[in-house]
Amino acid sequence: MDVRQPTVRRLCAAASAGPAGLLAQACQPGDFDRWFVQTDCRRGVELAFAPPGCDEPAAIGDLIMVLRRLVADGHHGPTRVTAAFHVGMTTLDEHGFGGAAVDRVHAMVEEFAPPIPTMSADAGRGLAVVISAGLFEDLQGEGMPRLGWRYAAGSNAWLRVYDPFAPIAPRRHFAHDSVDGAW
Asked: Which domain holds residue 126?
């Protein structure tokens, strides 16, 4: 008898092309201590899964801010990272998380992985963030502006490339987003 794994809707994040453990390190401070982090060694991608019911706009904004700081600090050497966010159905078994949402963040990270020519003026460091279109629209309903984001129609996702040397203001609320892209 085939036993179907239960599915749970979760916010999923993925990061690639950076140093090993970067996403896990980003999930350590603040309210990320409940996130589950796993590594897909075959693809060189780190994955993070928020607990069901988390405050998605706050979690995404805060995680992007922490990743920007880690990339900008230079302690990891030249770092060009692509991070992706999607919310969808996941399963959990003895091998870790899987399901359509996991496949989607994998696909976004792989498609937009460096080298991205417009990553930044400093070819050694930068952060590209990709958010699936459905999640992006939900975030806009919570006040996230489109400023700085561009739509990738073929991927049905939104992309933003952060300058590693732009000031990183504390994220307050989407309505207070600054032109430098900190949110």
From this structure: 8-176
Name, in order, each residue with C-beta under 8 angstroms of 53's C-beta and a sequence gap of 6 or more.
Answer: none
CATH number, domain with residue 67: 3.30.70.1230
The total domain count for the chain is 1
pTM of the model: 0.83
pLDDT in tens, 27-40: 886 666 688 888 87
- Whether 102 maps to a domain, the answer reads yes
Task: Classify residue 2: in a domain, yes or no.
Answer: no
Give the total residue count for the chain. 183
The CA-atom distances, in angstroms, between 81 and each of 26, 109, 138, 154, 182 are 12, 9, 24, 21, 17
Q: Which residues pair with 90 in a beta bridge?
A: 8
- 59 within domain boundaries: yes
Distance, in Å, from the CA atom of 129 to the CA atom of 115, rounded to the nearest integer, reads: 13
Q: Is pLDDT larger for residue 20 or for residue 39?
A: 39
Whether the bond between 115 and the residue before it is cis, its omega within 30 degrees of 0, is: yes
Cα(1)–Cα(153) distance, integer angstroms: 41
What Å distances lie between residue 54 and 34, 149, 151, CA to CA?
10, 24, 26
Q: Residue 182 domain-assigned?
A: no
Residues 6+ apart with CB under 8 A from 51: 10, 34, 35
Q: What does the block give as tokens for 27?
A: 């999930």
Task: Give me the amino acid identity at 150.
Answer: R
